[in-house]
């Protein structure tokens, strides 16, 4: 962070003296006005619900240019990473700042692969859930519970503990997501198999049974790996900010990541892919492509409460580069599985076509986001709709950890503690119960 060659001056119309505020520049992106001393100097807070104009931290991990539709992990464009790297290389990059060379890649892959099993006791913990529990409810519980199993990696201030917990979380998330799925359908859990890739192993834990040999389909394996890469990090979004805020109290990494999972669940965030597919299925059941026009009228009617799920983004106001890559993957997977004529895909394309031409969406800069197509890919692979957000959580875990570790290592890090504009009752006395 370097001082910019200008400063901001804040003046008041009530005669209070104006103050100068320092301005800092990042390497790219907007400058920031440093308001840390504002309260001390003026007795006033800033007001920014939803953090529309607030940089909550400095970070060197992920950069998004919403107007250009650009997403960089450690400087590398997502389009290049998605084509040239696998997910574990991307994890290494996010965690350590640089892409691994061949030896580093092998060592890192071996390390993650050797930590994929979970404590056997975990499955008894899982049994406490109802079989029809939502996988995100299960995952929030299981991930939080990891801190009860791995006592040797819960001190967030110890760099070695942070390193071990990072590997454990990245390695064990696929195992836990697959266990949540198998539990729901009453099938035996499949132990990880170490000669498979990260995504190949996940596919096997999801879809194999002990009765038969399971062969990983390389097209599906690659598609899943791409889903993981595209979801690996997205700078200071709601769940990442939750992880940072939660971790800022010094809680253990497993607890902080569980908080991120809970936040991700919401339909405005990671739950959007589930909500998007539910929307497409509902529309398909109620007339399909023929009813698209009518549905879009509802979306545009503010009183209907209906949103076009998978559309719009807080940051991307041009296009979401992940959506483009996901659309390509969608084509590849549907062709591989002979589902080119999949009616939901046709429906999604019809909705997209209208939205890209309709003034309501164009004027508000609403474009398809990554979730618009990722649900269709996952459904084609055989992943149940209620597990979509779990897959997102699996992939985002590395981003959360990288951001959490960056925060803990930042000398300017403090417990997060926003302030408020109080609009409740001023001080009053408690009346006796007979007088209330
Ligand atoms: N359908 C219809 N109208 C919309 C939509 C939508 N999907 N998204 C935004 N709008 C309208 C909104 O009503 C508002 O209109 P007006 O200015 O007339 O009041 C305008 O567009 C701006 O919307 P906003 O809610 O102020 O925008 P935001 O930046 O706060 O919200 C969003 C971003 C992603 C929450 C929102 O676009 C949305 O709810 N989209 C659907 C859910 C979704 O797909 N979420 C996944 C996000 S990508 C995955 C991730 O990174 O987590």
From TrEMBL:
Q: Which GO terms describe its molecular function?
A: citrate synthase activity
- Alphabetized CDD domains for the sequence: EcCS_like
Q: Does the keyword RNA-binding apply?
A: no
**Active site annotation, chain numbering:** 313, 371
Q: Which InterPro entries match?
A: Citrate_synth-like_lrg_a-sub (IPR016142), Citrate_synth-like_sm_a-sub (IPR016143), Citrate_synthase (IPR002020), Citrate_synthase_AS (IPR019810), Citrate_synthase_bac-typ (IPR024176), Citrate_synthase_sf (IPR036969), Citrate_synthase_typ-I (IPR010953)
Positions of transmembrane segments: none
On whether Acyltransferase is a keyword of this UniProt record, the answer is yes
Q: Name one Pfam family in it.
A: Citrate_synt
Q: Which UniProt keywords apply?
A: Acyltransferase, Transferase, Tricarboxylic acid cycle
Pathway(s) per entry: Carbohydrate metabolism; tricarboxylic acid cycle; isocitrate from oxaloacetate: step 1/2
Q: Which reaction does it catalyse?
A: oxaloacetate + acetyl-CoA + H2O = citrate + CoA + H(+)
GO CC, one annotated term: cytoplasm
Question: What's an example Gene Ontology biological process for this entry?
Answer: tricarboxylic acid cycle
Database matches in NCBIfam families: cit_synth_I, PRK05614.1
Q: Which family does it belong to?
A: Belongs to the citrate synthase family.
Q: What is this protein called?
A: Citrate synthase
Question: Which source organism?
Answer: Hylemonella gracilis ATCC 19624
Which gene codes for it?
Answer: gltA
């Amino acid at each position: 962070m370097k001082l910019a060659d200008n400063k901001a001056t804040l003046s008041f119309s009530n005669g209070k003296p104006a103050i100068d505020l320092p301005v800092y520049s990042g390497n790219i992106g907007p400058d920031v006005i440093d308001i840390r001393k504002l309260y001390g100097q003026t007795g006033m807070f800033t007001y920014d619900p939803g953090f529309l104009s607030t940089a909550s931290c400095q970070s060197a991990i992920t950069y998004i240019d919403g107007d250009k539709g650009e997403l960089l992990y450690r400087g590398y464009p997502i389009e290049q990473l998605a084509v040239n790297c696998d997910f574990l290389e991307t994890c290494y990059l996010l965690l350590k700042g640089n892409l691994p060379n061949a030896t580093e890649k092998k060592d890192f892959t071996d390390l993650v692969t050797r930590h994929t099993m979970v404590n056997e006791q975990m499955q008894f913990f899982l049994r406490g859930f109802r079989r029809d529990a939502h996988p995100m409810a299960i995952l929030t519980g299981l991930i939080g519970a990891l801190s009860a199993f791995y006592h040797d990696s819960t001190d967030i201030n110890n760099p070695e503990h942070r390193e071990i917990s990072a590997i454990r979380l990245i390695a064990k998330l696929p195992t836990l997501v697959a266990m949540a799925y198998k539990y729901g359908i009453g099938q035996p859990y499949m132990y990880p198999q170490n000669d498979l890739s990260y995504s190949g192993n996940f596919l096997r834990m999801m879809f194999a049974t002990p009765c038969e040999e399971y062969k990983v389909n390389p097209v599906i394996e690659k598609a899943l790996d791409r889903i993981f890469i595209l979801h690996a990090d997205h700078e200071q979004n709601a769940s990442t900010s939750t992880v940072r805020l939660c971790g800022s109290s010094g809680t253990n990494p497993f607890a902080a990541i569980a908080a991120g999972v809970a936040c991700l669940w919401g339909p405005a965030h990671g739950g959007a892919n589930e909500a998007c597919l539910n929307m497409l299925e509902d529309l398909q059941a109620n007339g399909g492509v023929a009813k698209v026009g009518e549905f879009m009228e509802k979306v545009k009617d503010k009183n209907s409460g209906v949103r076009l799920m998978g559309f719009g983004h807080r940051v991307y106001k041009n296009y979401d580069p992940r959506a483009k890559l996901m659309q390509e993957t969608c084509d590849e997977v549907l062709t591989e599985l002979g589902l080119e004529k999949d009616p939901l895909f046709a429906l999604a394309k019809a909705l997209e076509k209208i939205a890209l031409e309709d003034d309501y969406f164009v004027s508000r800069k609403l474009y398809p986001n990554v979730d618009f197509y990722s649900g269709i890919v996952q459904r084609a692979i055989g992943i149940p709709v209620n597990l979509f957000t779990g897959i997102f959580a699996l992939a985002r875990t590395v981003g959360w950890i990288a951001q959490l570790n960056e925060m803990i290592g930042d000398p300017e890090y403090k417990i997060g503690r926003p302030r408020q504009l109080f609009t409740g009752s001023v001080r009053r006395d408690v009346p006796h119960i007979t007088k209330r």
